TrEMBL record:
HAMAP family: Methyltr_EFM5
GO molecular function annotations of the record: nucleic acid binding; protein-lysine N-methyltransferase activity
One GO cellular component term noted in the UniProt record for this chain: cytoplasm
Keyword line: Cytoplasm, Methyltransferase, Transferase
Pfam families xrefs: N6-adenineMlase (PF10237)
Species assigned in the record: Ibidorhyncha struthersii
Annotated protein name in UniProt: EFMT1 methyltransferase
Amino acid sequence: KMDDDDDIPQLSSHTLAALQEFYLEQQQREGMKTSQGFNQYSIGSIEEDWQLSQFWYSDETASCLANEAVVAAGKGGRIACVSAPSVYQKLKEQDGKDFSVCILEYDRRFSVYGEEFIFYDYNYPLNLPENLLPHSFDIVIADPPYLSEECLKKTAETIKYLTKGKILLCTGAIMEEQAAKHLGVKICKFIPKHSRNLANEFRCYVNYASGLN
């Protein structure tokens, strides 16, 4: 009788160790999430999903953009994050400060944020809940998921509907002309960074006197 074990491909000890390390890291991450308590709002509590074209900002960039939004919104201001969840998570870490924030996002995992979450598909830019009144946000921060004029144009409809005036757009450097055309925003000196390096150069654009220059 042949030994059944021969048919089972054996993982090399190196691969096995790497796998175990991976699972251990994953468990530690999950463990951290549950033990932190406050953690549900921290960056990385929802992992980025590349299939949804999601790329999180570095911690520093997310903080910088969140702080800019708070200053721009002013006391008691309302901030909308359109497809910019890592900025939203940074804003949530400042919970209790004098501003309110909504997240418009295609990724339904963000529904954990309750009423602040609004399901958003840029293909239907004005398909928004009735209680989301036009021009009710002091600033809108948006990061359209794709570097295409169509995506920017549709997201721009949403931004213009939501904002009282101020816009902070994050998108590729190659979108500069379209950003000016559809939203009247100009490029800033501040260079946003991502937690993983993207192939496309990324920039911020604003239509007001921001602290990002």
